[in-house]
Amino acid sequence: MNCVFCRVVAGTESSQTIHEDEHTIAFLNLAQATRGHTLIVPRTHHRDLGEIPAETAAHVMRAAVEVSRQLAGALGAPGVNLWHASGETAWQSVFHFHLHVVPRFEPTDLTPPWAEVEHPVESLAGLAKEIRAWG
């Protein structure tokens, strides 16, 4: 079993679990972006967002709601970020679907990953048409 998250699920890799149910397990990330930074993974292996069944993804999101409330309550975090990356170009580094739950304590405790540039809504019409045409 070469997937570290599959080993966490199997109990053969050490982790600090803070929540689990029949579909998911949530454990503290070894690289804490902020205090309490947690990963939620499905118990079944799915490489990324392109492979995970919608029902399994829904279980992960339900766990994210619970874990977010748990972290906010236990740590006094007034905010929470959810983060997911699918694919190497999106900075995915462990190829087992997972969701980061990052408690926020101050507006400056993390740096935004991108700069937003707002476009006039009319200028997005061609892009929207291209995406809708796909399927």
Automatic annotation (TrEMBL):
Motif location (Histidine triad motif)?
Answer: 96-100
Pfam families given in the database record: HIT
Recorded GO molecular functions are: methyltransferase activity
Query: GO biological process: any one?
Result: methylation
Matching InterPro entries: Histidine_triad_CS (IPR019808), Histidine_triad_HIT (IPR001310), HIT-like (IPR011146), HIT-like_sf (IPR036265)
Q: What are the entry keywords?
A: Methyltransferase, Transferase
Signal peptide range equals none
The entry's protein name is HIT family protein
